[in-house]
Each structure stands twice: as structure tokens, then as C-alpha cells.
Amino acid sequence: MINPLVIKLGGNILEKEIALNGLFKTLSNYLKIYNRAIIIVHGGGCIIDNLMNKLSLTTTKKNGLRITNTDQIDIVIAALAGIANKKLLSWAKKFKINSIGLCLSDGNIVDAIQINKELGHVGCVIPGKQLLLRILFDNGYMPIISSIGIDDHGCLLNVNADEAATAIALTVEGNLILLSDVNGILDKKGNLIKVLNTNEAEKLIANNTISNGMAIKTRAALKAARNLNYPVYIASWQQTDQLIDLFNGSLVGTKVFA
Q: Pfam families given for it (predicted)?
């Protein structure tokens, strides 16, 4: 059986109707041809920002992570597990893809841990249990998973979606694709870096060519590539015509390997 495909959706795709239409049309066509389990993992920073602005609340980030105080975690949950997740489910329904909406801690898919008090309700994750996902795969469901985790003390946590997708890929031993609104990792001149290994990536992070959210994304990709022994791809959801090739392992965007 082909390895499950874990697709992380990022950038501002949730606000782009044309992009969502193209993506889910492609997913629908792909699933008709290939007998392959697919998992969608998503964040939704643009939706969080919209809600925060409407409530006149400020957003603070540290090293690419959103500081999530106790008075803001409910807003993050509403944005990610509510608005973003159900919006993606509605697109799946439109294209007749049998889907189910989950968060990271449903069925202990991953284990979530609070990073530190300074960041508030922000968590990191490690691989968990396959059982729930395997049951869903066997019954023809495509899980759509928001990046909300819950630790062993019942604390709700906002998890970086790239790191969440990596942990899920490790849980199911799947292939990982990180889709965003950029074509891949870019050099200082804005040119696409087609292939990147650990040593080259660390140099680019050290000199700030890769920084903030892209640094987190790159390190997540390297971690997955190292532990799965498969390359990970960072690419754009805007390249609809190339997505099926990407899903099948063709070089689209940046290929990251350990």
C-alpha cells in the first residue's frame, strides 16, 4: 500500500476561494485515481488575526510562534478548530470527499506538551498513536486536523501547524508536503532553492536567509526527512497544475532531505 500523504495547508489559503476550489478539485481527482490515504493538517493564522483585530486585541510573536495567553486561547481554538476546520470540511463536502474534522489530540494522534509559561498556551508535539487514523483510512475518510493540542493535564494548546504535520507524518509513517503561499524556500535574491539538506539549511538559518516562520517550517521538514528517511517538499498551493505531480513525488518547490 502507498504511504499515507500528509498535507499541511498554510499561508492565507483560507481566504482564497479560487485556491481552495483548485486544491480540493485536485484532491478529488487524485483520490479517484489513486488508492491512497490523505491527511490534511492546518493552522489558520489569518483567521486568528481577523478575530483578534475585531476584538481589538494585539498579537505578539516570538521566534515565529504566537504567544497565546489564557485570555486568548479560546479565540485561537474558535479560529482553528472551529472556523478554519469547518471551512475546509465544507470544501471537501463540495467535492464529495468523505472527510472528518479533528484536532491533534483526538484519539491521541500526537502527544502535546506545553513549551513554557512565557509563551502561554503554546505546545510542541511528538508522534502518538495510529489507531484512530487507521480506522478512518480503512473506512474511506480523509481526516482534516486543526493544530490544537491538549496535554496530559487537559491544557488546551496552540501548536505550530508545520510541527503538527511533521508529528502526524511520523505517527503514520507518511510522506509530508508543506503547502504555503510561497513556491518554496528562497535565497537572499528571492530565487527558489530546489534542493536543500541539513548542513545547507542550518547555514541559511544562521545568516537569516531563512528566518521566523520559514525557519520553523524548514526545521520541521528536516526533522521529518531525518526520521522518515523520505524527502519532504515545501511548495505552493497556488501551483494547482503541479499538485498531482507533487503528490506523486515529483520535484516541485523545495525538496528537503536530511
A: AA_kinase (PF00696)
